[in-house]
Amino acid sequence: MTLVLVGFCTIVGTAFWIDGRLHRVDALTDYPERPLPGSGTNWLLVGSDSRQALSPEQEAELSTGGDTGDGRTDTILVVHIPAFYDGGHATMISLPRDSYVPIPGYGSDKINAAFTLGGAALLTQTVEQATGLRMDHYAEIGFGGFASVVDAVGGVSMCLDEPIDDPLAGVSLAAECQILNGPNALGYVRSRATPRADLDRMTHQRIFMAALFHRVSSPAVWANPFRWYPLATSTADAITVAQGDHSWNLAQLGLALTGSTQNLTMPIGSFSSNWAGDVVTWDEEASARLFEALRTGQPVPADLLPDPATPTP
């Protein structure tokens, strides 16, 4: 009984210690016409291309390039966790960063421009208005933070069907099962040097996120203090969350994503070009059905899910 009590106190103490180190930002702000809460819980996960706190040596190691201007969103994921009474699996949706959507107060532009123009708050409002889903939580991580988290867990095992050779992303990976360290993992989720370019890139991001959460939840990490302590420290220092979000919310997200998840990219209507460059427009009818299903706690329409023959994590 004493050991159980000590273990419980250690877990609680660690959770509060991590919580106190998390960076926070006003990402979830109220505004007129904000969507009402729906069924389940929605997360907005953002990978930014911020180089803040990276030395020139680290920039070279991670092949981030020298751009140190306003941060942009390199990755945008909406994660829906169903309410316990709805059952089902968590759903992870990639929003193409070139999605051409209305940005409140700025007209229409690529969705990642919202982050540059107004930070986390404007990006969240843009996503909420475009999807009709109210975001309940927000988490953001930069280049360096992502690589440090991967290294803290000893790398992540990935099996690649095709090789990736991308000097711009600083990665050269063979078509085989391998352990990706921080720099290689960053290159893997950033690379567009594949047949379907950005579409493959978003698929790789979802697959890697699932594999990373599986690795974090494995006994090899959480039962090994030489793994979980560096992981806790790296995570706390690397992640920015919304005001009101806590380490235990992140733990709930991780738990939801360690199970079977539904992974999909936004239904695409068309690819085109305009004053903003190459842009993507969503399939209005399909995307409306997708977000209505999530908002009301209904299953995602079967025709919007990936082909069952497509490998998923």
Describe the protein's architecture and organization.
The chain has 313 residues and is an alpha+beta fold. It is 41% helix and 24% strand. It is built from 10 helices and 15 strands. It has a 7-stranded mixed beta sheet with strand order 1-12-7-2-3-4-13, with helices on both faces. Helix 5 packs antiparallel against helix 6. The protein is globular, with a radius of gyration of 19 Å. The N terminus and C terminus are likely disordered.
Strand content: 15-25%
Radius of gyration: 19 Å
The pLDDT mean sits at: 82
How is the main sheet built?
Answer: 7 strands, mixed
Catalogue the unreliable spans.
Answer: 1-11, 54-63, 308-313
Query: Residue share in helices?
Result: 40-55%
Total number of helices: 10
The ordered string of helix (H) and strand (E) elements is HEEHEEEEHEHEEEEHHHHEHEEEH
Number of strands: 15
Structural class: alpha+beta
Give the terminus-to-terminus CA distance.
39 Å
What is the spatial order of strands in the main beta sheet? 1-12-7-2-3-4-13
The best one-word shape is globular
